UniProtKB/TrEMBL annotation:
PROSITE patterns, sorted: ABC_TRANSPORTER_1, ABC_TRANSPORTER_2
Pfam families registered for this protein in UniProt: ABC_tran (PF00005)
Keywords on record: ATP-binding, Nucleotide-binding, Transport
GO molecular function: ATP binding
CDD domains, A to Z: ABC_MJ0796_LolCDE_FtsE
Native source organism of the sequence: Streptantibioticus silvisoli
InterPro entries assigned: AAA+_ATPase, ABC_transporter-like_ATP-bd, ABC_transporter-like_CS, ABC_transpr_LolD-like, MacB-like_ATP-bd, P-loop_NTPase
Upper taxonomic lineage: Bacteria, Bacillati, Actinomycetota, Actinomycetes, Kitasatosporales
ABC transporter domain sequence ranges: 14-233
Protein name per the record: ABC transporter ATP-binding protein
Length: 233
C-alpha cells in the first residue's frame, strides 16, 4: 500500500507524497521524516508501527493538520491540507478528524458523559440529540455505568475509552490515535485495540493508529513500518 506515491484512489482517506519534516537547523537538525509516501484506505484500520523516535508522532501530526511538512503533499478525502490557512485547518480538524492521544486528554472537572458530549456542545447540537449520542457512545465503549464519574475516578483503560468515544462523537471521517495504548498495561492495551477495531466497523470510520508495540499489529487491516523517518514494507 505504500507503492502508490503518485496519487491514490477515490476510496483512499489519506494520500501523502514525499513528506519531509526536519526539526531545528544544522548542525543539530533532526530529520524526523525523510520522504514518506503512503495511502490510507477508507473504512479500514491502519497501524503505523515504529520504535521510539522513528517519526510516528511527527507523521500523525502532519496527516492530522496539527503541523506542516517542510515539503510534500497531503490529501485528506481529496482536500489539499497544505493549501489550507489556519482557519481552514481548524475547521478540518474539528469537522473531519477525531484525535486520541497517549495521555487521554480528558477534561478533569467534567464527568465521562460530559467529556464525550463536549464536541457536540461545541457545535451547539440540541440537548436531546447530544444526550442520545452520548448514551449510545458510552454503551459502545462499555462505560454506561460510569457516566457520572470524573477522569480521576476511572482507570487508565476506562479513561482511554472515554477519549475514544469523545473522538468519534461528531462522526468524523478519520480517527488519528497516537500511541493510544502507550500508557496502558498489556492486557488493557489489547482491550483498547479491540475497541478501536469495533469502532471502525460500528461507526464506519477510518482509523490511523501509531504504536511501538508489535503485538498490536494483529488488529490492523494495513500496517506501515516506520524506521528512521522512512517507511519500510
Ligand atoms: N519539537 C521537536 N524538536 C526537535 N526534535 C524533535 C521534535 N519533535 C520530535 N523530534 C525528534 O524527531 C524524531 C522523531 O520524533 P517523533 O516524536 O515523531 O517519533 P515517535 O516515533 O513518535 O517517537 P515516540 O514513540 O518516542 O513518541 C526524534 O528523533 C525526536 O527526538
Amino acid at each position: 500500500m505504500t507503492g502508490r506515491p503518485n496519487g491514490g484512489h477515490a476510496h483512499d482517506a489519506i494520500v501523502a507524497e514525499e513528506l519531509h519534516r526536519t526539526y531545528g537547523r544544522a548542525p543539530t537538525a533532526v530529520h524526523a521524516l525523510r520522504g514518506v509516501s503512503l495511502t490510507v484506505p477508507r473504512g479500514r484500520l491502519t497501524v503505523v508501527q515504529g520504535a521510539s523516535g522513528s517519526g510516528k508522532t511527527t507523521l500523525l501530526n502532519l496527516l492530522g493538520g496539527l503541523d506542516a511538512p517542510d515539503s510534500g503533499r497531503i490529501l485528506l478525502d481529496g482536500v489539499d491540507v497544505c493549501g489550507l490557512d489556519e482557519n481552514g485547518l481548524v475547521a478540518l480538524r474539528r469537522e473531519r478528524i477525531g484525535f486520541v492521544f497517549q495521555t487521554f486528554g480528558l477534561i478533569p472537572i467534567l464527568t465521562a458523559a460530559e467529556n464525550v458530549g463536549l464536541p457536540l456542545r461545541l457545535r451547539r447540537a440540541p440537548v436531546g440529540e447530544r444526550d442520545e449520542r452520548v448514551a449510545q457512545l458510552l454503551a459502545l465503549v462499555g462505560l454506561s455505568d460510569h457516566a457520572r464519574q470524573r477522569p480521576d475516578e476511572l482507570s487508565g483503560g476506562q479513561q482511554q475509552r472515554v477519549a475514544i468515544a469523545r473522538a468519534v462523537a461528531n462522526r468524523p471521517q478519520l480517527i488519528i490515535a497516537d500511541e493510544p495504548t502507550g500508557r496502558l498495561d498489556a492486557e488493557t492495551a489489547l482491550g483498547v485495540m479491540e475497541l478501536l477495531r469495533a469502532i471502525v466497523t460500528a461507526e464506519n470510520v477510518t482509523a490511523l493508529i501509531s504504536t511501538h508495540d508489535p503485538r498490536l499489529l494483529d488488529f490492523a487491516d494495513e500496517v506501515l513500518h516506520l524506521r528512521d523517518g522512512r517507511l519500510h514494507s
